[in-house]
Amino acid sequence: MKKIHILCPEYVPLENKGEEAIIRGTIDVIFGKQEELCEYHMVDMNIDKYQYVSGLHMHPGKLFFSDWRSREFGVGFSWEQIYSSFCSLLRNFLNKFFPFWIRKPHKEATRLKKILDGKIKGPKKYQESIKLLKKVDFIIAGHNGGLDEYVCHILNELHEINIPFGVFGSSMKPNVTQKELLKVFQKSFENSLFNIVRNPFGYRWALKNFPNCKFELNPDPAFGMFPTEDIQTEKIIKENGLSKFFEKDVIMFTTAEPAPISRHSFEGKVGVFQKVEAHRKFLANLLKNIHETTNANVIFLPHTIGPNIQMDDRLISKDAIKRAGLDSDERVFLLESDLSAKELKGLIKRAEFIVAERVHSIIGAIGVRTPFMSLASDKDTRVQGILSEQMELSDLVYSLRNPSNQEAKKKFEELYNGRDKIVERLEVLNNIIDEELKSTGTKINKIINNLVK
User: Fold this and answer.
1) Residue 430: inside a domain
2) What is the model's pLDDT at position 248?
3) What is the pTM of this model?
4) What is the pLDDT of residue 80?
């Protein structure tokens, strides 16, 4: 049987296991247990030649985008971070005050169209990628929040050479209001064979701005990612010397300091560094309370370990453990291994409870019926849209807007003691999610297979 080649045209850093979970979930939702029928191609802005990584074809980002267009704002004093933040600010400035600049596709988009259409050969160093990209049968865009105006230009250019596409799992761009940018999105949505949104906020934005296009609201594809088999999870536990650890109940933690936490939480603190300091103290206090009031062992999971040091959750976890005075305690363990998204979901399945700041670790927990307490910013639209509104789990979310150690302790005790009831709720919720994703996967699979035939 012919393998189907699918391209995700957005940058997906595999070091962020939430990002990986969306990709793996997309494959599992569409192809089920027959993932060998699919060859998945992706974009990596940090490589300069083709790589094959964990069953995925990784292509140099510079074939698709200018480097400065993909840079994101962040906190840090390194030249790399300062340059990235400057590029992000410049891009946003141009979009806001001179939006007409985005009408024309960027040069990499038009070049890629000519390369794949055989009009030009393309750079010599990219020939291995080019050879493989010419096999692409279908494009699935919309990964996470990656569907921006540049991705739309890629979609629209490749559509002109008869490469079909659909949008699945997108957060859309609720903050985009400029008419020139909306026109670029409009063209993509009109050409797309399906527009499936993962967040109610993005869904409402799409319905309002593109009333003549069809949109569907569906669970995040990451909900549909299969965890590793139990035997493989047991192997990971054994390899990390945790067999005895799991003889007792285990509470897991995921930590994070993205913009919603480092800039929009802890209202009484001014500036990023004060907020980060307050965040670390808060985590340490919560960990200490859990250690004192339960008999469970605690494992911190490395849900994101890059692509830069600011995105390495292990550093946050290590600091919180140290501040709690538990860095030598036999009941607290920081797992530092680079595990896949499927492996982490398999581990979360073994937890009695998880305290989570990483949204996709919560999505993983929901999928394996593990009760949780979400620590989140009120500004995080994924938490407010997906968890609170779409999944109706707002009572499992604790706001970090102005957190109190005593309130957080009380909230944890309430949820932890009521975890059996939460499991029952998650069981019912998962039946709904599974049905919705199964229906969507069947539809997308049929569309792609009919085109390939």
Assistant:
1) no
2) 96
3) 0.93
4) 66
pLDDT value of position 75: 58
Q: Residue 113's domain spans which residues?
A: 4-222+435-448
The bridge status of strand 332-334 relative to strand 195-197 is: unpaired
| pLDDT tops 70 at residue 293 | yes
- Pairing status of strand 56-60 against strand 51-53: antiparallel
Q: How far apart are the first and last CA of the chain?
A: 11
Q: Which of these ranges, 75-79, 213-217, 407-411, has the smallest mean pLDDT?
A: 75-79
Tell me if 245 is assigned to some domain: yes
Nearest to 379 by CA among 266, 282, 261: 261
Annotate 98-132 with DSSP letters as a single string.
-GGGGSSPPHHHHHHHHHHTTSS---GGGHHHHHH
Q: Return d(Cα 178, Cα 100) in angstroms, integer.
A: 9
- Whole-number Cα distances in Å, 275 to 265, 323, 355, 395: 7, 16, 20, 24
Q: Note whether residue 402 is domain-resident.
A: yes
Q: Are residues 282 and 165 in the same domain?
A: no
Mean pLDDT computed over 318-336: 97
144 and 48 assigned to the same domain: yes
- Residues 148 and 44: their CA atoms lie apart, in Å, by 16
Pair (291, 241) in one structural domain: yes
Distance CA 10, CA 59 (A): 11
The verdict on 200 and 231 lying in the same domain is: no
Residue 425 is assigned to a structural domain of this protein: no
Say how far apart CA 310 and CA 73 lie, in whole Å: 12
Cis peptide before 260 (omega within 30 of 0): no
Instruction: Supply 412's token pair.
Output: 């944890």
Residues 157 and 112: their CA atoms lie apart, in Å, by 8
Same domain membership, residue 117 and residue 24: yes
What's the average model confidence in pLDDT over 424-441?
A: 98
62-98 pLDDT per residue, tens: 999 987 666 666 656 666 667 667 767 777 777 777 7
Q: What is the CATH number of the domain that holds 285?
A: 3.40.50.2000
What is the number of residues in the chain?
453
